[in-house]
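User: Can you predict the 3D structure of Thyroglobulin type-1 domain-containing protein? Sequence below.
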Amino acid sequence: MVSNKCIASLLLLVLAVNICIASDCREKKAKAEQMEREGVMDVFPPSCEENGNYMKIQCMFTGCYCADVETGTMIGDVVPWDEGRPVCD
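Assistant: Sure. Here are the predicted structure tokens for Thyroglobulin type-1 domain-containing protein:
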């Protein structure tokens, strides 16, 4: 039988992992914004949700694309600005 302490420990571990994954967007955004302040050109800070996940639609100089909300990885192709915004499921 699993003790309550083991269950509580497992829940805390899962929560800690979720917090680390969710903060990835905020970390990358902060780094990109620092690079912009230092004069680096063509830097595009990611757009983040309140909970720290990446927003489904990310945009850059050439247009917007669908992104994985946990990793920020591009899904599909960039939709040029003059062709509207991508439809992300």
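The first strand starts at residue 57 and ends at 60. The chain has one domain: 4-83.
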